[in-house]
Amino acid sequence: MAPPKDFRSLVSGVDDVDTMADYLCPALGYQFMFTRKTSPWEMSEWNQDELQKFEVDLDDVDRLYYIHHTDDACGSTFHLLARMRHKNDEERRLFVEFSAGCDYTGFECQGGGEIFVTFHANVFFQTVLRADYNRAGLYESLLSDGYRIDEYTDYNPRRGFMENAPMLKFLCHVAINENRGRLQHYPQVLPKILSESVEEFIKIRETIQEYDED
User: Fold this and answer.
1) Could you tell me if residue 164 is left (phi over 0), alpha (psi between -120 and 50 degrees) or otherwise beta?
2) CA distances, 59 to each of 12, 69, 98, 121, 157 (Å)
3) SS3 readout for 136-191
4) At residue 89, does pLDDT exceed 80?
5) Residue-wise pLDDT tens digits, 93-124
6) Which of 26, 41, 192, 205 is the most interior residue, by most CB within 10 Å?
7) What is the pTM of this model?
8) In the chain, pLDDT over 90 holds for what percent of residues?
Protein backbone atom coordinates (compact mmCIF):
# COMPACT_ATOMS: atom_id res chain seq x y z
CA MET A 1 0.00 0.00 0.00
CA ALA A 2 1.32 3.44 -0.91
CA PRO A 3 2.06 5.95 1.86
CA PRO A 4 0.99 9.63 1.71
CA LYS A 5 2.29 11.47 -1.39
CA ASP A 6 4.76 13.53 0.64
CA PHE A 7 6.09 10.50 2.56
CA ARG A 8 9.81 10.51 3.31
CA SER A 9 11.85 7.81 5.05
CA LEU A 10 15.25 7.82 6.74
CA VAL A 11 15.27 4.02 6.72
CA SER A 12 16.77 2.40 3.66
CA GLY A 13 14.40 -0.06 1.99
CA VAL A 14 11.35 0.98 4.01
CA ASP A 15 9.25 3.22 1.81
CA ASP A 16 5.68 1.94 1.93
CA VAL A 17 2.97 0.97 4.41
CA ASP A 18 3.25 -2.77 3.84
CA THR A 19 6.97 -2.80 4.66
CA MET A 20 6.41 -0.79 7.83
CA ALA A 21 3.67 -3.24 8.80
CA ASP A 22 6.05 -6.15 8.30
CA TYR A 23 8.30 -4.62 10.97
CA LEU A 24 5.55 -3.89 13.49
CA CYS A 25 3.14 -6.81 13.25
CA PRO A 26 1.74 -8.21 15.47
CA ALA A 27 2.34 -5.33 17.92
CA LEU A 28 0.00 -2.96 16.04
CA GLY A 29 -2.92 -5.24 16.86
CA TYR A 30 -2.35 -4.95 20.61
CA GLN A 31 -2.20 -1.17 20.99
CA PHE A 32 -5.25 -1.26 23.25
CA MET A 33 -2.91 -2.73 25.90
CA PHE A 34 -0.29 0.02 25.67
CA THR A 35 0.37 3.05 27.88
CA ARG A 36 -0.01 6.47 26.25
CA LYS A 37 2.10 9.45 27.24
CA THR A 38 2.50 13.07 26.27
CA SER A 39 3.93 16.16 27.93
CA PRO A 40 1.99 17.43 30.98
CA TRP A 41 1.33 20.77 29.27
CA GLU A 42 -0.10 19.11 26.14
CA MET A 43 -2.78 17.13 27.98
CA SER A 44 -5.20 20.01 27.44
CA GLU A 45 -4.82 19.64 23.65
CA TRP A 46 -6.57 16.26 23.76
CA ASN A 47 -10.27 15.68 24.23
CA GLN A 48 -11.47 13.43 27.05
CA ASP A 49 -10.20 9.87 26.51
CA GLU A 50 -8.82 10.83 23.07
CA LEU A 51 -5.20 10.29 24.08
CA GLN A 52 -5.89 6.93 25.73
CA LYS A 53 -7.66 5.76 22.56
CA PHE A 54 -4.94 7.03 20.22
CA GLU A 55 -3.40 4.36 17.98
CA VAL A 56 -0.63 4.44 15.41
CA ASP A 57 -2.12 4.09 11.93
CA LEU A 58 0.62 3.52 9.36
CA ASP A 59 -1.58 5.00 6.62
CA ASP A 60 -1.13 8.38 8.34
CA VAL A 61 2.67 8.24 8.65
CA ASP A 62 4.32 10.83 6.39
CA ARG A 63 7.80 10.82 7.93
CA LEU A 64 9.58 7.65 9.00
CA TYR A 65 12.60 8.35 11.16
CA TYR A 66 13.33 4.91 12.60
CA ILE A 67 11.85 1.42 12.59
CA HIS A 68 13.25 -1.77 14.09
CA HIS A 69 12.15 -5.26 15.05
CA THR A 70 13.96 -8.02 16.91
CA ASP A 71 12.79 -11.60 17.26
CA ASP A 72 14.55 -14.42 19.11
CA ALA A 73 13.84 -17.37 21.41
CA CYS A 74 13.13 -15.03 24.34
CA GLY A 75 10.61 -12.80 22.58
CA SER A 76 10.17 -9.82 20.28
CA THR A 77 10.62 -6.03 20.39
CA PHE A 78 9.17 -3.36 18.11
CA HIS A 79 10.19 0.30 17.73
CA LEU A 80 8.93 3.14 15.54
CA LEU A 81 9.81 6.81 15.38
CA ALA A 82 7.61 8.78 13.00
CA ARG A 83 5.51 11.82 12.16
CA MET A 84 1.80 11.31 11.53
CA ARG A 85 -1.16 13.28 10.28
CA HIS A 86 -3.69 14.01 13.02
CA LYS A 87 -6.99 12.33 12.13
CA ASN A 88 -9.08 15.16 13.57
CA ASP A 89 -7.00 17.99 12.08
CA GLU A 90 -5.37 17.45 8.68
CA GLU A 91 -3.14 20.48 9.14
CA ARG A 92 -1.53 19.24 12.35
CA ARG A 93 1.24 16.70 12.66
CA LEU A 94 1.99 14.38 15.56
CA PHE A 95 5.43 13.09 16.45
CA VAL A 96 5.24 9.53 17.73
CA GLU A 97 7.47 7.00 19.44
CA PHE A 98 6.02 3.49 19.46
CA SER A 99 7.80 0.92 21.63
CA ALA A 100 6.51 -2.57 22.41
CA GLY A 101 7.63 -6.05 23.31
CA CYS A 102 6.52 -9.50 24.36
CA ASP A 103 8.09 -12.75 25.47
CA TYR A 104 7.97 -15.95 23.43
CA THR A 105 4.36 -16.60 24.51
CA GLY A 106 3.11 -13.46 22.74
CA PHE A 107 1.34 -10.26 23.75
CA GLU A 108 -1.73 -11.94 25.19
CA CYS A 109 0.33 -13.77 27.80
CA GLN A 110 3.24 -11.44 28.51
CA GLY A 111 3.48 -8.26 26.48
CA GLY A 112 2.99 -4.52 26.55
CA GLY A 113 4.13 -1.25 25.13
CA GLU A 114 4.16 2.53 25.23
CA ILE A 115 3.18 5.24 22.78
CA PHE A 116 4.61 8.71 23.33
CA VAL A 117 3.11 11.58 21.31
CA THR A 118 3.77 15.30 21.03
CA PHE A 119 2.81 18.06 18.64
CA HIS A 120 6.16 19.80 19.12
CA ALA A 121 9.19 18.85 17.05
CA ASN A 122 11.85 20.17 19.44
CA VAL A 123 10.24 18.44 22.43
CA PHE A 124 10.19 15.23 20.39
CA PHE A 125 13.84 15.56 19.40
CA GLN A 126 15.05 16.31 22.92
CA THR A 127 12.90 13.66 24.64
CA VAL A 128 12.84 10.39 22.74
CA LEU A 129 16.40 9.90 21.56
CA ARG A 130 17.61 6.38 22.25
CA ALA A 131 21.25 5.50 21.65
CA ASP A 132 20.45 3.58 18.44
CA TYR A 133 18.32 6.30 16.81
CA ASN A 134 19.83 8.21 13.88
CA ARG A 135 20.15 11.48 15.79
CA ALA A 136 21.89 13.39 13.00
CA GLY A 137 19.41 12.19 10.38
CA LEU A 138 16.43 13.08 12.55
CA TYR A 139 17.87 16.54 13.25
CA GLU A 140 18.41 17.26 9.54
CA SER A 141 14.98 15.91 8.60
CA LEU A 142 13.21 18.12 11.13
CA LEU A 143 15.19 21.16 9.99
CA SER A 144 14.38 20.44 6.34
CA ASP A 145 10.67 20.46 7.24
CA GLY A 146 11.04 23.95 8.66
CA TYR A 147 10.98 23.18 12.38
CA ARG A 148 13.10 25.14 14.84
CA ILE A 149 15.26 22.52 16.51
CA ASP A 150 17.90 23.07 19.17
CA GLU A 151 20.98 20.91 19.06
CA TYR A 152 20.56 17.92 21.34
CA THR A 153 21.03 18.77 25.03
CA ASP A 154 21.77 16.22 27.72
CA TYR A 155 19.17 17.16 30.34
CA ASN A 156 20.96 15.01 32.90
CA PRO A 157 24.62 15.93 32.26
CA ARG A 158 27.55 14.24 33.93
CA ARG A 159 29.86 16.10 36.29
CA GLY A 160 33.07 17.34 34.72
CA PHE A 161 31.42 18.90 31.66
CA MET A 162 30.26 22.14 33.22
CA GLU A 163 32.75 24.66 31.84
CA ASN A 164 31.62 25.20 28.24
CA ALA A 165 29.13 27.86 27.14
CA PRO A 166 26.20 25.51 26.33
CA MET A 167 26.57 23.87 29.73
CA LEU A 168 26.61 27.22 31.50
CA LYS A 169 23.39 28.11 29.66
CA PHE A 170 21.96 24.79 30.81
CA LEU A 171 22.88 25.52 34.45
CA CYS A 172 21.23 28.94 34.26
CA HIS A 173 18.06 27.29 33.00
CA VAL A 174 18.24 24.72 35.79
CA ALA A 175 18.64 27.47 38.40
CA ILE A 176 15.54 29.33 37.17
CA ASN A 177 13.54 26.11 36.85
CA GLU A 178 14.35 24.99 40.39
CA ASN A 179 13.58 28.43 41.86
CA ARG A 180 10.47 29.36 39.90
CA GLY A 181 8.62 30.19 43.11
CA ARG A 182 10.99 33.09 43.78
CA LEU A 183 11.74 33.92 40.14
CA GLN A 184 8.26 34.12 38.67
CA HIS A 185 9.10 37.57 37.34
CA TYR A 186 11.79 36.27 34.95
CA PRO A 187 9.64 36.74 31.80
CA GLN A 188 9.42 40.46 32.58
CA VAL A 189 13.13 41.04 33.23
CA LEU A 190 14.83 38.76 30.73
CA PRO A 191 15.11 39.56 27.02
CA LYS A 192 12.32 37.86 25.07
CA ILE A 193 14.62 35.35 23.38
CA LEU A 194 16.06 34.26 26.74
CA SER A 195 12.63 34.07 28.37
CA GLU A 196 11.37 31.88 25.54
CA SER A 197 14.46 29.70 25.88
CA VAL A 198 13.78 29.19 29.58
CA GLU A 199 10.12 28.35 28.90
CA GLU A 200 11.16 25.77 26.31
CA PHE A 201 13.67 24.28 28.74
CA ILE A 202 11.06 23.94 31.49
CA LYS A 203 8.59 22.28 29.13
CA ILE A 204 11.16 19.77 27.87
CA ARG A 205 12.41 19.00 31.38
CA GLU A 206 8.84 18.29 32.54
CA THR A 207 8.19 16.17 29.46
CA ILE A 208 11.31 14.06 30.05
CA GLN A 209 10.28 13.48 33.66
CA GLU A 210 6.85 12.29 32.48
CA TYR A 211 8.42 10.21 29.71
CA ASP A 212 10.79 8.45 32.14
CA GLU A 213 8.08 7.53 34.65
CA ASP A 214 7.09 3.86 34.66
Assistant:
1) beta
2) 19, 19, 15, 20, 38
3) HHHHHHHHHCCCCCCCCCCCCCCCCCCCCHHHHHHHHHHHHHHCCCCCCCHHHHCC
4) no
5) 999 999 999 999 999 888 999 999 999 998 89
6) 205
7) 0.75
8) 48
The per-residue b/e assignment along 99-137, b for 16 or more CB within 10 angstroms, e otherwise, is bbbbeeeebeeebebebbbbbbbbbbbbbbbeeebeeee
Distance (Å, rounded) from C-alpha 43 to C-alpha 39? 7
End-to-end CA distance of the chain: 36
